[in-house]
Amino acid sequence: MIRSLFLLIISLSSLYHPTALQADIIDDLSSYFKASNSKEIAKNFASTIELIIVDEEDVYSKAQGEQILRDFFVKHPPVKTSIFHKINTNPNYRFGVIILSTAKETFRVSITMKKFNTSFSITELRIEPAKD
Prior knowledge:
Elements: H1 2-21, H2 25-34, H3 38-42, E1 45-53, E2 56-61, H4 62-75, E3 78-87, E4 93-102, E5 106-116, E6 119-129
Parallel strand pairs: 1-6
Antiparallel strand pairs: 1-2, 3-4, 4-5, 5-6
């Protein structure tokens, strides 16, 4: 009886394991933005991503999105980041807002993620000037 109960607990805990691995994905992304690490950010992109950067908006492939983000970091090297808002209570959806400070300007980065199979992927990334 105890062995059956133990096996049940182990199997149920493994169901929640994939979510636990990415429970702090917004925190990770914030540190990648601070480090200008477009490669690590792009690893979390869905196969196509809607990018809205300042006034330009389009849907791009993962590789194109990484290049556009790299170009943004060249023009606007980050100084610091802070997480402004985070929604991580929905099992199939994540949303976060990161405040990205550069030497000249501050940006609001909105990240929308959806769950595909067992992990979350960024489906929309919006970078816009922060409003005072």
